[in-house]
Design goal:
alpha+beta
Length: 418
């Protein structure tokens, strides 16, 4: 009987996580991840947890778990990266970690205790590399609101036409406006290292977190606090190593910057290996070559991390606009400075802050109703989740709320109601 209860609780856990920030289709690989990472009592708590950020008092009321036991479970889950705690005013609030950005990254960044890192890497690799499962579920319907956005290497932007580069598009400005910094292991490179798929020599410890995100990472042993000078050094090194700068997809209070390589980054592989150009939100720039000065050496095509450039004899580099991220890596090696980034003609959607990113992402993925009616133990909330969820999933309604015309008013109304 205990075996059947355990099997059932992990299926419920999988369903709960599937209703968070990233879709997680159920299969044997995902089941294996859950059994490896969660004890049965931890899984039971997650299933009972309300959605969104909540106080200990509210979680205790919803779950019915005795306060001391609940606090112990929450602390244990936070130390494993399976729960996120954030300080709000007078106390911590807790939320369940989605698979990404969350369970995968924090698990592969852990440094404390007895760690089964190699096995974790194998399990995640088996699950994430199935293009007909995870990638298809999250990218196969034209989704636009992604966790990461690309930041250009600033020196590769063509400023001859007096192009304005906003502060949130500059890695240096983001770092200068940050008070607290943390650097931890790159989860993707760590996974590929143990899966024996790593091809680069980029350092494992480069991924940066800022301010409140850095505080969480430091408290739970996922990263170490560093000075601003080290962050700027890492930024300079990323240019030398030809790494892509991928940041938190918000304009204000950016929480992290990843220094990504084409061989390891699961987001970049979503583009290059699995064919989903929407795996990452592009920068506001795109690569272009000056055919008059181009030496046709092919270095830009060779170094592009997502294979967005092809060489055509007599015509020089041909950029595939549908997958060019506007990272500028291709221009870093251009000896004639013919390859540059220019401003895109079409506007790129970058949410103003984390609130907007979460709401828009939930709307795209059909889980917004969970944040509005967040108590899974309440029959009334369950009914309303089904009713509102069905309404929001209607294609015309979703398209209207995501449009330039209604998006701002929709977000304002949701913000006022929370």
């Amino acid at each position: 009987m205990g075996h059947m209860v355990g099997k059932d609780i992990y299926k419920k856990l999988g369903k709960k996580i599937d209703n968070l920030g990233a879709r997680t289709p159920w299969n044997s690989a995902f089941h294996s991840i859950l059994k490896e990472l969660y004890t049965e009592d931890e899984a039971d708590l997650i299933v009972k947890m309300p959605y969104g950020l909540n106080t200990l008092k509210y979680i205790q009321r919803v779950t019915g778990i005795e306060s001391a036991k609940l606090k112990n479970l929450l602390d244990r889950l936070c130390d494993k990266g399976l729960m996120i705690d954030a300080w709000y005013g007078k106390g911590f609030r807790y939320t369940v970690s989605p698979l990404v950005i969350g369970i995968f990254e924090f698990t592969m960044m852990r440094t404390r205790g007895e760690l089964n890192t190699k096995e974790w890497a194998r399990l995640f690799h088996d699950y994430l590399q199935d293009k007909n499962s995870f990638y298809k579920a999250n990218l196969g319907h034209g989704e636009k609101v992604m966790p990461l956005r690309t930041i250009p290497h600033e020196e590769t932007i063509d400023m001859s036409e007096y192009v304005e580069v906003l502060d949130y598009e500059k890695a240096t400005a983001i770092i200068e406006n940050t008070q607290k910094f943390a650097v931890g292991i790159c989860s993707c490179r760590h996974e590929k290292l143990h899966a024996e798929n790593r091809q680069c020599h980029a350092p494992l410890s480069m991924c940066a977190s800022f301010d409140s995100a850095a505080d969480y990472m430091i408290r739970h042993g996922f990263a170490e606090e560093v000075e601003k000078s080290q962050m700027l050094e890492n930024l300079a090194r990323s240019r030398e190593l030809r790494l892509v700068l991928n940041a938190d997809n918000v304009q204000k209070n950016v929480g992290f910057i990843c220094f990504c390589c084409g061989c390891c980054c699961n987001v970049l592989l979503g583009v290059s290996s699995f064919g989903y150009a929407n795996a990452i939100v592009t920068s506001s720039f795109i690569a272009r070559s000056n055919t008059e000065t181009c030496a046709e050496c092919g270095d830009c095509a060779e170094i592009c991390p997502v294979n967005a450039i092809k060489m055509k004899p007599g015509s020089g580099p041909i950029v595939d606009d549908s997958i060019c991220m506007g990272c500028g890596v291709c221009a870093l090696d251009c000896s004639t400075e013919s390859m540059k980034l220019i401003k895109r003609e079409q506007r790129v959607l970058h949410p103003a802050d984390t609130f907007e990113k979460v709401i828009l992402s939930a709307l795209e993925r059909g889980s917004l109703q969970n944040l509005i009616f967040n108590n899974p133990q309440n029959a009334g909330h369950t009914f309303m989740r089904g009713l509102v969820g069905g309404f929001l999933k209607l294609p015309p309604m979703k398209k209207a709320l995501m449009s330039d015309t209604l998006r701002s008013r929709f977000l304002d109304s949701i913000r006022r109601s929370t």
